[in-house]
## 1
Amino acid sequence: MSQKISDSTIRRLSVYLRLLEDLEKAGTPTVSSEELARRGGTTAAQIRKDLSLFGSFGKRGLGYTVAELASRVRRILGLSGAWRVALVGAGRIGSALFAYPNLASRGFHIVVVVDNDPEKVGTQWGEVRIRPQEELEDAIRSEKVDMAIVAVPVEAGQSVVDRVVSAGVRGILNFAPTPLQVPRDVWIKDVNLVIEMEALSYALSQGGED
Amino acid sequence: MSQKISDSTIRRLSVYLRLLEDLEKAGTPTVSSEELARRGGTTAAQIRKDLSLFGSFGKRGLGYTVAELASRVRRILGLSGAWRVALVGAGRIGSALFAYPNLASRGFHIVVVVDNDPEKVGTQWGEVRIRPQEELEDAIRSEKVDMAIVAVPVEAGQSVVDRVVSAGVRGILNFAPTPLQVPRDVWIKDVNLVIEMEALSYALSQGGED
DNA sequence: TCCTGTGAAACGGTTCACAGCC
DNA sequence: GGCTGTGAACCGTTTCACAGGA
């Protein structure tokens, strides 16, 4: 079952799932790879290839059953249950993420918030109380946290990552704009807005020859 | 000069630039591809290949002059001047971005902020007054905006993108978690936190076989 | 007939290895 | 001798095209 699956395949599955859920809501019973490709801005062959890496979910001549495929993709992505997430850094980005509805609705529940600003510590955010940074490891363990979102200034990034890893977290979403070191069995995804903007800068300064 | 340059090359250049600026600050006069690779978590061959797509910036036997290479890369990425940016959506994510120091320090200046919440319209953010959504196109034109950051709810994403494009913007950073349509001469970069989290979900639910 | 599932071909990006210049 | 610049080999991903089942 687990051969070599590329990151881009996984990201596309995530997009397919969203499209499938839209179709589900709309009550569409079945969908072809062609139709899904049209909606997702990709190709039918790509979709069939992606899915074929995990099994045969369709029916020749008919397409895919929307509800069934959605459920299969959800299972592939590990989204059947809920994930428990720690947020490190309750600054502007952290608080925006905490309130971001799409995370919770997709099963990512922020159950721990940590910050090092004494003004913020003790504050209640919904059901979560902001804890001081010293409690990071304990909170991760007692709240059975699976993933961490790191939204701290660049200079604190590495030490925060080291600490969440030492407490047993194996998946990290990182907003600190610097390459961070993690052990090979820990997964880290970087969100770097400056890199995205600079890629735009490059594209625009090319003067527009497509 | 402009052959086919991949997006990944551009993103790596952005990383190299940051490393070079660190070296510049530290007063290091020259650097080899080997050394740069070590710091950036990549390979020396990769760096030489990336740079060779744009010219020959080093000296054989010596390496690269830090200040010169930084300046070259800055020019390649179109970062010599300043970019004027419109922020559409002054909600939590929008306000976090507005205050994000790394954007301004890299030459991305938010000169227009638009929101559709009457409570927010008229509020002053630093030097920028939040404008009503009707003024979007006018503001983009009068403020000579080059790029837009779209941080609005998913259902408003497409119409906002259509409007900024019609006003002449050709580079968009999009936070709306849905695939958006733009003309072929417009560049859009999506930041989709849910996809990142779902990629982590997949990795973790694989049970840890590397 | 229609549409999936999948080997095979094509493509593009990364790594290798070395010629060439300091 | 040291390190860059680059063609060639390699490798992973995408696209093609079609066999095969509904």
## 2
Amino acid sequence: MAVARSRLAATAVQVAPALLGAVVRSRAGGAEVAVRITEVEAYEGLDDPASHAFRGPTPRAAIMFGPPGYLYCYFTYGMHWCANVVCGPDGTAAAVLLRAGAVIAGADVAAARRPTARRDRDLARGPARLAACLGLGAAHTGLDLCDEHSDVVLASMPDQPSAVICTGPRVGIRAATERQWRFWLPDESTVSGYRRHPKARYPQ
DNA sequence: AGGACGATTAACT
DNA sequence: GTTAATCGTCCTC
């Protein structure tokens, strides 16, 4: 099954905590891996200087302005891919970065894709690690996560947001570090540690 | 056409 | 704690 698109039509700040505990299932790359999400970040559009959508619908960011429920993968630091769930109503820019999760199916495949991981909890601990586990890259941006026949599916979301959710500044960004738009589940060993950007405008 | 800078990770000291 | 790896994107000539 796949999550209804309407559940993703709210702002990124609203959708992000609701995605904690969600399950993403991927058969990209020919083998099935599923992850339970434990850490996310919200990126809104034109008012968020840390968002790829801040400068408008550039070729890369255009998908953030489209309808919710689609996968946005981007390439960063010349070597890594990261994965987002596009959210917000059509015409507004918003996405939730999947920062970390626990592998709940296909751990053998995930481990083969993450040869440097020393423990299971490190397989999808970090956004580029999570995307690597799921086999995601350029070919998968634009996939419909709300179509259960897609290679990458948002299989489930909790009916109610978790009772206790931690928040803090987003990781690795220079601007808008005062916004507490990173959300994670407490007591989860897969949550990545906070790392301030070396050139952040405000100390954190 | 040129260059700065990453929504990061791993491997160092 | 520090730093190299590595290239697409986007801004500024």
